[in-house]
Design brief:
single chain, about 525 residues, mainly alpha, 19 helices, about 0% strand
């Protein structure tokens, strides 16, 4: 039995695609726990002022993280591999310790500034709030700001482990983290209210930090050293990330404008937008996790060794694999948004009047998943090729166009303008980034045409199945939302797999062989 279990583990470590499948499975399972946490949040906190303040406070922490460290986080894995392969472990340790010293110093300056001058931040992020509402936001902000340093160290240490081909620890631990979040919300909400979300976040992140520290110490303990930041040491990480500072500045301006406009729409609007976005966070975390964890170091290695054909093949394979893997969620979010909201959120403090607007917002967010796939994979390919500037310009234009459209149309379209502009600009930017390269253009156009053709056909079929069959049958079913969601997923999924098989997508063969291996191994283990 132990040998069989060991073989199962080795199967998920044998190739980049199998590692990606393993990570995706872990993230999908973790996503179900995340859904339950969102359900608890809707039940206990609804779309209240306190939850608006919590979302805005988290957005401030994210804004500072992305603005000051986002470009480094984006390029760290690739540069880490470049330095290790080209200059050796000693230079790598010196550069890393100096970089970590700079991260700690900058984080402390941001945290102390926010603790002493929270009113300035409140005025920028919540101009539509009254003074009493800003006071609630200010208290929440002071509790959340210290998480900036802890979260950033965690991000860097996870990237270090990824660069040493250690992929699963953070995702395995995420189950423990999710469990801690659930327990804290259930047990502490009655005593400290929404601050139970903050408590659970700190507890789970600190535990993860300790686990990462132990793992890195075993791999290369010199990477845990901390030194004062020196320019010649941090320069390699800064230079490769410079083009992305432009991207992240515009990206954070875009998000700040979005949050500001939400505070003018009315109390609860920030929470409603956040609830709809939580659904999209599930596939987005899978996409970003697989791409940044597996693909970026792989492509950086291929590029460093001048294996251009393999570089292109892996990029295209990952686009196909991730696109086809997450598309079933696009079907659910666009075909059954109201049923999803009613089933998962409509309870406790989440009022009936929030359902329609949350569902409509989720509908438009669903289409944005397609753009996420292309922008992430094509963007990481540019980073691995040390051509970050092109990605930075396109990403900046995406943020600028989206922000301008939000400012122009938010009064007439309200909340739904945000997912429409977000999804539309991501789709166009991602398509341009992938298709505009000179290498093997015909193959790229064929790939995109096949993927979009499958998407349009399956979505049209999904809408027809729901409108002309399932809604009529649902009136005879006591659990009509569950019936519609499950039936849509099953019927559309069967049609989806048949179409992929008919069009001879290699991912279907890969999936079939994977299932057959797992079944055969299970049969052997039972014997």
């Amino acid at each position: 039995m132990n040998i069989i279990n060991l073989n199962k583990i080795k199967f998920f470590l044998s190739t980049p695609r199998k590692i990606s499948v393993g990570l995706a499975l872990l993230k999908i399972i973790r996503a179900f726990l995340s859904v339950y946490i969102v359900m608890l949040s809707a039940k206990y906190f609804g779309a209240s002022l306190e939850r608006d303040a919590w979302v805005l406070g988290g957005s401030v922490v994210l804004m500072f993280t992305q603005l000051f460290f986002g470009p480094i986080n984006e390029t760290f894995r690739a540069k880490f591999v470049h330095i290790r392969e080209e200059q050796g472990d000693r230079r790598l340790a010196d550069s890393h310790s100096s970089l970590m010293g700079g991260i700690v110093l900058v984080s402390l300056i941001i945290i102390l500034s926010g603790e002493f001058f929270p009113d300035v931040i409140c005025s920028v992020f919540a101009p539509g709030f009254t003074e009493s509402q800003k006071n609630v936001f200010s208290i929440m902000l002071r509790w959340l700001l210290p998480s900036l340093l802890i979260n950033e160290i965690t991000i860097i240490w996870i990237a270090v482990l990824n660069a040493y081909d250690s992929y699963y620890i953070p995702d395995i631990y995420s189950f423990v983290s999710g469990g801690i979040n659930v327990v804290c919300v259930i047990l502490l909400t009655g005593y400290i209210g929404i601050y139970s979300l903050i408590a659970s976040s700190y507890i789970s992140t600190i535990i993860l930090l300790i686990i990462l520290l132990r793992k890195i110490h075993r791999r290369n303990h010199s990477l845990l050293l901390l030194s004062l930041p020196r320019w010649e040491k941090v320069k390699p990480f800064i230079f490769i990330s410079l083009p992305f500072y432009l991207t992240f500045v515009f990206g954070q301006i875009h998000l700040t404008i979005e949050k500001m406009l939400c505070t003018y729409i009315g109390e609860g609007s920030v929470s409603i937008l956040d609830y709809a976005r939580k659904f999209i966070d599930m596939p987005r975390s899978v996409i970003f996790g697989v791409v940044s964890t597996v693909l970026t170091p792989l492509l950086a290695n291929l590029y460093s060794n001048k294996r251009e054909d393999e570089f292109f093949d892996e990029t295209t394979r990952f686009i196909r694999m991730i696109y086809l893997g997450v598309f079933p969620l696009v079907i659910l979010f666009t075909v059954c948004p109201r049923e999803m909201v009613e089933l998962l959120l409509f309870r406790g403090q989440f009022m009936k009047e929030y359902i329609d607007v949350t569902a409509e917002t989720l509908f438009w967010f669903g289409f944005g998943i397609i753009g996420i796939v292309f922008i992430n994979v094509a963007g990481q390919a540019q980073i691995a090729k040390k051509q970050s500037f092109r990605f930075a310009v396109i990403a900046s234009l995406i943020a600028i166009v989206s922000a301008v459209l939000n400012l122009l149309f938010f009064e007439s379209l309200k909340i739904i303008i945000f997912p429409i502009t977000w999804g539309g600009t991501l789709f166009l930017g991602g398509m341009y980034m992938y298709l505009s390269g000179k290498e093997r253009r015909r193959e790229k156009y064929v790939t995109v045409l096949k993927l979009l053709s499958v998407s349009i056909f399956i979505l049209a079929a999904g809408f027809m199945i729901k409108e002309h069959l399932l809604l009529k049958l649902a009136v005879f079913n006591e659990y009509n939302n569950i019936f519609i969601i499950a039936s849509t997923f099953m019927l559309s999924g069967i049609l989806y797999l048949l179409l992929l098989y008919f069009l001879k997508f290699e991912e279907v063969i890969f999936a079939k062989n994977f299932v057959m291996r797992m079944v055969s191994r299970y049969i052997v283990s039972r014997k």
